[in-house]
Write a structure and sequence with these properties.
1009 residues; alpha+beta; globular
Amino acid sequence: MVLDTEKKKREKTTLLINKTSLQYNYFRNFKIFIKKPNLIGALLLFIFSSFIILESGYAVELDQVYKLSGSFKTISKPGLKIYYPATCEPVIGEIASNFAKIREEVGKAFNRWPNDLPVSVILTDFDDRDSGTVDTTFDSINIALFEETDSLSTRSFTLEQKFALRLANIMVLRTLGPARRAFKRRVGLLTTPVWLLQGLAMHKAFPMDTLPRTQIIQMARSGKIYSLEELDTINDQTEFEKDRMCFQARHMIDFWCEKAGENAATDFLCALEKNPIEFSQIFQNSFKMTFKQALSEYNEYLNNLAHQKDESSFSNPDIYKIKNEGTYCQGFQELPDGTEVYVSSRRYFQEVYDLFIDQHRKKQKPILRNVHPRFFFDQESGTLYIGRYFVNLKREKRLYLWAVPVSGESYRAYSEPGSYKPFAAKDGRLYFLNVQSGKVKIVSISLDKSGKGANDELLFPNGVLPLDVTMDSNGRFLVLIHKNGEFLLLRFDRSFLNKDPDLIFRSKREIRNLQFFDGKIWFSASDEAKAQIPQIFTLETIGNKTVLKCLSNLIGGVWDFSKTDKDFVVSTIKDSGFKLARCSINVFSSEENSNLPTGSGKIASTESKPKNNLVKEELSEVKNEENLSKVSTASFSTDANLSPNSKNSQIPLLTQQFLKYHFSETPDGNSNPYSPEWRKSYWLPRVSRDEQGAVFGVYSYQSDRLDRNSLIFSPTYGFKSRNWGYLADWMKRFDLFQTGVTIQDKDVQKSYHSNTYYERAKTLDIHASYPFTLSSLFSFGVNLTNRQIAKYPDNSSDVPSIGNDNSLYFRFDKRAIRTQPFSDIFPRKGREVTAIIKKGMDFFNGEMVYDSYSLRWHEYIPLNDRTVLTLRGWAAEDKKNDEIKRPDDLSLGGSDFLRGYSSSVRYGDSLRAFSLALGKPLQIEWAAMQKWVHKEILVLEAFYEIGDVHSRERSFKYLQDEGIELKTKALLLRRIPFSFRIGTAWPTSGGPRHSYWLIDFSAVTGLIQ
């Protein structure tokens, strides 16, 4: 017993000594790390801090990861094949039917349709602001099912409009040349202005709607019409400017077609297909005037439009002064204590919203970031409710309902994704919309902090997305939908299981911002009497009469509004964005309609047509109804399987009779599980860069329809190395996890210890990657490279080791740059991080054993609207045996770091470098060069650098320099994009200055790839 006690004491003492020693070692290692950082520890620490500190700040604007995860299915229509998530099976019939009709209509607009080339459409199911894209390599369309209906930009297009626009884009591209003959199409893209192609697509897709028309009138009156040179820069403009340029381009084509005939645009495209180089002559033959004359006549037309007498009654309200309210601003509400709340895009250069609070005009701050623009304030609890975009585990942006107390911490109020647009509170419950897998319903939850007791209140039919929802004083739902070219305002009784919804208003003009207060229905709508610019209207029921009134006449229109105690605060177009403005309410028109029954359970109709143009034909007698009043007692179908949050709830649906009249029945379609469908491109030109400069080549690209597998083969030619090579890459995805194999054989010019030589490298790289977040990617792999000397240096200097260089590597990339024009050449805010760990090993007869670590960090900090501070750091280690001469030895000097010195002024095994720069865009016009080179941006940057590379025989002896650099992005022949850098720097310790220049045409890849 005593021995056991002594043994336990000794074990305890040993454990204490070991623990103390371990603590001492930790402390000692920490001190060593402070004095001489361990790079692996630094990498791990930095990656960890990047995740915690940075992600919420910038990930909202970055969406580079693969989203098409999960099981997909297909459905076919004549000339149309749709790929959709299997979870969206219930809604796909309605969508496919609508798309098939649009395909036929757009084909007629082009007067022809190549039936041998069916269109592929890929639908995705996540709550993102994706407005749709076109894959020009294979002429396929990608569209998200979710529609952000409260947007102020072209993202407010309906799903059908998005499809029609992208389909018209494909038809325009096909007239330039088929995707298989890619070179001909690329020539057409280089010779034809991009803005003209965009305008032609909008012209053919659908009639001009309210937003473009209002923007054009506002631009004409303010003299802000874009010049031809400005239109040529459309690809590098903000989303707002892109929209306005597209609207102007479309308006120009509408005007030219009115003068030359509707077929002029089609004739132009057909002629352009035959000979895309002769753009000017083709334009003149099609539109019966030269391009210069066409522009002159359009400008004259706009000048007359801006001074029309019938628009002189428009008022120009005083802008409600909010500091830096951003390009997109709406949703203003004034709380009882005077606090003002609104959503704004002021932190972004695209339509991304934050929720801002302004307490008594003293301090404005964002209280919730990355939100849906529609929110609701509950006065009793003093809490704001709003949908917020959040990234789930599948790397998808989904909307969740958040509660934001005016004083207190924000919290998630409801855990189901797809929840947004809260619109009413009644009897202790909050009402909002929820969309999942394309199906939309109204949900209510308890207003207490628990958010429990969710009830499904109303399920909308398949393919029906309400544009707006509100609740009247009796607790009935008022729902605005868009169907069959009409905007329908429906009223649902919450206890209406045996009643049909009332159709209380219908219009062929756009209606938005549905609200109910003061016993009236309020909304904004376009009106022919007001140049089809949206204004505020009220719809009030008095006895058996309905009174419609127009209450505003703003030249910039009313795109959102809220009532205060004294007046209205509206979101209107003013100068370069949507601004908040205060305006008083005056009645500009009024009309009584005595035949509009209310609460009857019937679809309202009237034989009398009001004088107000808003409802010119909208309240006409309903045709082909077969006495719809008889369906008032029809029962509602329910489906318990569509009620995931309340097992026993019965969700009321619209009556089948109403569905039959207003909505097409779900069509039959050949729906099948998706299996990989390989598609192949023919040889396409490709421009890229290697370490020495531009590389030209061609490539053949094969992939399955969803890009889950791909195969690329690309012969290349390096302009500087003057040697051929090739690259082959195979990729396969397993959900978000991507694997691949790359084979490469190339000759590359390199520099070793300041001596130029040519290396022949044959490489096999097996790799995999996984996106941790929307802005970060982790990669790892095995690299097997055989290095040989293709051409030795002219002198007898040392050359690097040759043989098998086999390695295992890990790489972490993070790019969180604020999205805005020219961010590729002049980032304004954000961070870029690249961390690489590479270990040379002796497996597979490897002959080079080494450990290589590298960490590069770029930080971009805006000092004001134009000046940016850039901090760059680089730390690297290359540990190897003395007999190994690594061809990738670390070096400084040239055009990256230490620009005041020639290339490889410092080389060795241990690198430290830091750079500080101040950059600012310059406003310099090149009048003499404007015909040949159109400058898009010119940036002047002053920099200071310090750095060194050393080997084991000496410690760091840092070199320093300071200099200036000019960077520009321009259009050669006003078509071909290229970037150019020229700089000069002076060593601070004396010595001759060093100058350098670089020209990069790799941006052409975006046009021809």
